[in-house]
Amino acid sequence: MIHHFNKSFNLTKICIPRPESTMHLVYSNNIRHCAFTLAEVLITLGIIGVVAALTLPAVINNTQNKQLEAGLKKGASEIAQALIMHQADTGNTITSNTEKWILKSAIKDYFKGSEDCGFGSQDLATACVGNNSDIYKNFNNTATINLGYFDDGQIILPDGVFIAIENSTPGRVYISIDVNGFKKKPNRLGHDLFMFEIDNEGKLLPMGAKDTDYYSENDTYCSHSSNSNMNGAACTQKALTDSKFWKNLP
Hints:
Elements: E1 24-28, E2 31-35, H1 38-90, H2 103-107, E3 115-116, E4 154-156, E5 162-169, E6 172-178, E7 193-198, E8 204-206, H3 235-241
Antiparallel strand pairs: 1-2, 3-4, 4-5, 5-6, 6-7, 7-8
């Protein structure tokens, strides 16, 4: 005998909650469905919200730090290229003994589309960052930095990056870079503002490297606790070489 089955027969997954479950059973067309209560849904959404609130700031901060790190590496490369191109075109090497106020005019034309931002000390009325400004803080935000080392030439690149020069004293030539521009925070030395030094052979050295002016064995100038107004000056070396640096900013 051949048996015929009804074509309309449907296999329906039946939800059988555990005895301790608060899950509701909802009947529709004689089919039993499982459903959560409104209270359970709200509690779940609340938990998700708390977790998001706890983790989102860290994610945002990590993303920002990665952008600053990339900006530092890019800026360092652009400065080095400008110095190399100046030497190739003129036969002259910029060194720590370069005459005062020469560096800016020597390299500014190699930053295509850049804006001349004055000096900082000699033209306070028009400078982007005058040496009496208080917009920049030290590494751990305990003091306003000494802007006397950033006021012998200032340049703004097309992407907003801010370059500041120290070139008023023979034997000391610094080039610093604010990788996201002076109009954007955090505006802190060792966070988005980094210093480089040119030695007597014309090498561009990250400040904090051995033999640079702010090198210190006990990290006085890249410290979470120092109140020095130049704390952060030596962080450039760490920012470029220490993978843990960007995860532990104060």
